[in-house]
Design brief:
With about 140 residues, the chain is mainly beta. It has a domain of about 100 residues. The protein has 1 helix and 7 strands.
Length: about 140
């Protein structure tokens, strides 16, 4: 009876491992240095695994369910969550079946915080906020 019970527990545990490993969705949490707003979206400066600062440009269209800028399964490509806490700001990136799926920005609620800024218009970054282009992420 004990062997049968041990075998049953092992089978349940092993089945759970296999289903988690075969999951089509993969997520990664990345700390953010600064989020700067632009009329066409957000420039997000984040830390890589080697503590280098890299930037991505998230188009404003990704935050709304309009047009053709949704994910393949109909969800919005970007969400913004405002709050406070020692872990803010950070972002969650999601891949489905090996391709970028969507992201969530967890930002400080207070726009006066040092982690917020406004893009200098002289930088002329408008073209970088193309909603049809994939994000170029480096870790």
């Amino acid at each position: 009876m004990k062997k049968l019970l041990a075998l049953l527990v092992f089978a349940i545990f092993f089945t759970g491992l296999v289903s988690a490993a075969d999951s089509p969705m993969y997520a990664k949490v990345v700390p953010i240095q600064k989020v700067t707003s632009h009329q066409k979206g957000y420039k997000v400066s984040y830390f890589t695994n080697q503590y280098e600062v890299k930037s991505i440009y998230v188009p404003i269209e990704w935050f709304y369910q309009i047009g053709d800028f949704r994910t393949s399964d109909g969800f919005i490509k970007a969400e913004i969550v405002r709050g406070n806490g020692p872990s803010y700001p950070f972002m969650q990136l999601f891949w489905k079946d090996g391709k970028f799926h969507h992201l969530r920005l967890f930002v400080v609620d207070n726009y006066g915080d040092r982690t917020w800024g406004i893009v200098n218009e002289s930088e002329n970054l408008g073209a970088k906020f193309d909603p049809t282009k994939a994000l170029e992420l480096q870790f």
